[in-house]
Amino acid sequence: MAKITSEMREFVKREHCLVATADQDGCPNLAVKGSTMVIDEETLAFGELRSGKTYHNIIKNPLVLMVAANLYKRTGYRFLGEAKLITEGILADRFAEMFATMGNPHPLAVVQVKVKEIFDLRGKRLE
Prior knowledge:
Elements: H1 6-14, E1 16-22, E2 28-32, E3 37-40, E4 43-48, H2 53-60, E5 63-70, E6 75-86, H3 90-101, E7 109-120, E8 125-126
């Protein structure tokens, strides 16, 4: 399984992050996720405010692709993994606190993504 490096962690902190999901019929959805953070070497997470397309797609199909990118420099990473909706516990509390300090409502859930593969933006698999 690929590991998220310290360089990748810093990149995720400072750049735009998006998540691609698909419903049970394969219809894609892409959403910007401003609260994305690296939890550990194998895990990304973001807060989900509404029960929109991303939320519903993950219920039906947990496979996601997260992208952290600097579009001007054309650099970044693609993280392929499996998502899980978290509604209670330490991680949920951490995001609730973070959202409160930003003046946002309590997130409906935290999406925890266990990363299985990592690629650069050109599609090269990173070990």
